[in-house]
Amino acid sequence: MASVNGFAFQYQPNKSIPEKLLKVLTAEVVLTLDTPVYYRYFQGDCVTKQLKHTTLGLCGIKVLKITHIGPGQDHELYLDLKV
């Protein structure tokens, strides 16, 4: 998906926040981590917040579910995620 002006969002004259053009879309996000999953609680879960609010939220995409996969977890369980 391209997050470009006119496709995902549209800047309006005299407004600092663009209009969200993808309001009807939803997303299920799978994040792979190179640190243990519980580290996100100590670090404030900044990657999830950034993706959810700034990247996808700017376009109007609603995040339904976020799955974190880190070292030591059974990755085979997540290879057959249903789309």
Please, could you describe this protein's structure?
It is elongated and about 50 Å long. The two termini are about 15 Å apart. It has about 80 residues and is of the alpha+beta class. The longest helix has 14 residues, at about 45-60. It contains two helices and four strands. The mean pLDDT is about 80. The chain has helices at about 40, 45-60; strands at about 10, 20, 25-30, 60-70. The strands form two sheets. Strands 1-2 form a two-stranded antiparallel ribbon. The chain has a two-stranded parallel ribbon with strand order 3-4.
How does the SSE layout of this entry go?
Elements: E1 9-10, E2 19-20, E3 26-32, H1 39-42, H2 46-59, E4 62-69
Parallel strand pairs: 3-4
Antiparallel strand pairs: 1-2
